[in-house]
Design brief:
heterodimer, A: alpha/beta, 7-stranded mixed beta sheet, B: mainly beta, 6-stranded antiparallel beta sheet, 4-stranded antiparallel beta sheet
């Protein structure tokens, strides 16, 4: 089957010379758009300087050891994804480096630092196992209660020593059964960043400026990737309603307020009791009004509530459903949990860092999240402009593999050479400040459920 | 009656249900699904349907606990039978709270 190209026939301005600009054009091309390059092409910032400027260099490496260069231009990919988004819509201040700044912003707000084989956030560890290295991310408080079952041991012994005895394949299989986020460190292999399927007939293409018709986005996601996507869409003119379950509100509310505000200020906050039939009914009615849905759950979770993306898409023309998962929606992989740091290990970043530096490291901070959020916003806005009708499936794993394979050195020699050169380039400047963000919160995020009654009554829905 | 251990995987003798033991007590227990004692993963299934009193089903991905909270199971494959411990039905445990960061 030929791939769906939602923007086929669209010409957009996307200039610049360098990794970030090339990446922006490759993303636009994958959506079918043609890039017109203005003649006054400016050079992008060097990827090594971009890595350091973003703050990720300081977050990668052993505590007390050297800050480490990533030998693939990941921060350039973030800049490129943001530039591609800015080429399709108005309202973002996409200065050079703004995408990269988003990758380091959580750590900056939370005051995190590099910890070698442990993620800056502290929950993901890269451990030696019987025949390799495996990342395990015990991010949810309850995850620790699963460790004895994961390793089949009594819970008193040193769990890392137990991991060291067991083969990677067994550890991965059992972690997946238990719903724990795990990934084996391996060499990177490429993947397409987006799976896009057309359901039904799209509406007519929509203009880049959303003033005439503002899409209603219902954002069911939590943490970083999905909320960032929703916030970028809001900046482009969407009306965004953030929906949280009363029993399981967004965990990021318990994190640094400045970070939560950055991702969620300006969205209306609706709280629903999704354990009750009435709450699930309200959710279905709210979704019925939405033009774009953002969700970052396993497909099973919504299906158990009687919500099905394909049925929703065929309910009305012009809609877009954005699904963010760890490993995709198909087959067994639909059940696998991933968070940003372990997904980075699974996509090959720790293996590349080991080849380049000899150290076992987690690369960046929850690196899959901001990259996926940026790509998700691009997919959603492209679908909206194209008239909708799409199921847009992104996974942390696919986006990271796509980024890692972009401009990756072809041999170990090339990798070492680039790592050495880029490290010198990064160190050639004394002080280097992050680029400005492409948006800044004008206000605080709304308290949980502050807009429930107003939103439901605006939409003519019954409050509980 | 069997003594269970964290990490042990078992399957139902009467339906498709499979579980993994998350935690349990040291004494032997009678763990059933569909009213029949659960068996090892390579064990032979009975040619029986779940007992009607134990046939509300087990849902994949849900965690089940006993009333005294001594034993917790994760359902790794759903089925027609209900899980019970020493004759009492197990109940679904609230889903995990989300992390504050990842």
């Amino acid at each position: 089957m030929a791939p769906v190209r939602p923007l086929a026939g669209l010409r957009v301005a996307s200039g610049g010379r360098g990794h970030a600009s090339d990446y922006a054009r490759s993303l636009l091309a994958s959506l079918g758009a043609e890039s017109d390059s203005p003649c006054d092409d400016e050079a992008d910032e060097h990827p090594a300087l971009a890595w350091r400027r973003s703050g990720l260099m300081a977050l990668t490496g052993r505590a007390g050891g050297a800050a480490r260069m990533c030998p693939v231009p990941l921060t350039s990919c973030a800049d490129g994804a943001l530039a591609a988004l800015a080429a399709l819509g108005d309202g973002l201040r996409a200065a050079p480096g703004s995408g990269a700044t988003l990758m380091g912003v959580r750590a900056r707000f939370a005051g995190l630092a590099r910890q070698g084989a442990t993620s800056p956030g502290g929950t993901c560890r890269l451990l030696a196992c019987g025949d390799g290295h495996i990342a395990i991310n015990l991010a949810r408080p309850d995850d620790w209660t699963m460790v004895p079952a994961w390793l089949e041991y009594d819970g008193d012994a040193d769990w890392a020593a137990r991991v060291a005895e067991l083969p990677a394949a067994l550890l991965l299989e059992r972690a997946r059964l238990l719903g724990l986020a795990a990934a084996v460190s391996a060499a990177p292999t490429p993947r397409s960043w987006l799976e896009l399927k057309l359901h039904g007939t799209p509406k007519a293409p929509r203009p880049r400026c959303a003033n005439a018709e503002r899409p209603l986005v219902v954002d069911l996601s939590s943490l970083w990737a999905g909320p960032l996507c929703g916030q970028l869409l809001r900046e482009l003119g969407a009306h965004v309603v953030k929906v949280e379950s009363s029993a399981r509100p967004d965990g990021a509310r318990r994190g640094p307020a400045a970070f939560f505000d950055l991702l969620n200020a300006g969205k209306a906050s609706v709280q629903l009791d999704l354990a009750s039939p009435a709450g699930r009914d309200q959710l279905r009615q709210l979704l019925d009004r939405a033009d774009i849905v953002i969700e970052a759950s396993r497909p099973r979770a919504l299906r158990q509530m009687g919500i099905d993306a394909e049925i929703w898409l065929s309910g009305r023309r012009g809609r877009s459903w954005l699904s963010i998962t760890g490993h995709g929606r198909q087959g067994d992989a639909a059940e696998w949990v991933a968070f940003g740091d372990d997904a980075g290990v699974g996509a090959g970043l720790s293996e590349l860092m080991h080849r380049a530096t000899g150290e076992r490291l987690i690369c960046g901070d929850a690196i899959g999240d901001p990259l996926t959020g940026l790509h998700a916003a691009l997919a959603a806005w492209a679908s909206w402009r194209a008239g909708g009708g799409h199921l847009l499936a992104l996974s942390l794993d696919a986006v990271l593999r796509h980024c890692v394979s972009f401009g990756a050195p072809r041999s170990d020699d090339a990798l070492h050479d680039r790592h050495a050169r880029w490290t010198r380039v990064a160190k050639s400047r004394r002080n280097i400040a992050p680029a400005p963000l492409c948006f800044a919160p004008q206000s605080r995020a709304r308290p949980l459920g502050a807009d429930t009654a107003a939103v439901l009554s605006d939409l003519g829905l019954r409050a509980a | 009656m069997k003594t269970l251990k964290a990490g042990t995987r078992l399957k139902s003798a009467a339906c498709d249900t499979e579980v993994m033991v998350i935690r349990t007590r040291p004494e032997p227990v009678l763990l059933c699904c569909g009213g029949m004692e659960m068996i090892a993963m390579d064990g032979q299934k009975a040619a029986a349907e779940p007992d009607a009193a134990f046939a509300q089903g087990a849902l994949v991905g849900k965690r089940y606990v006993d009333e005294q909270d001594t034993t917790e199971l994760l359902c790794t494959k759903g089925g027609k039978g209900s899980l019970s411990l020493d004759g009492a039905l197990l109940v679904v445990k609230q889903a995990k709270a989300l992390p504050s960061s990842d």
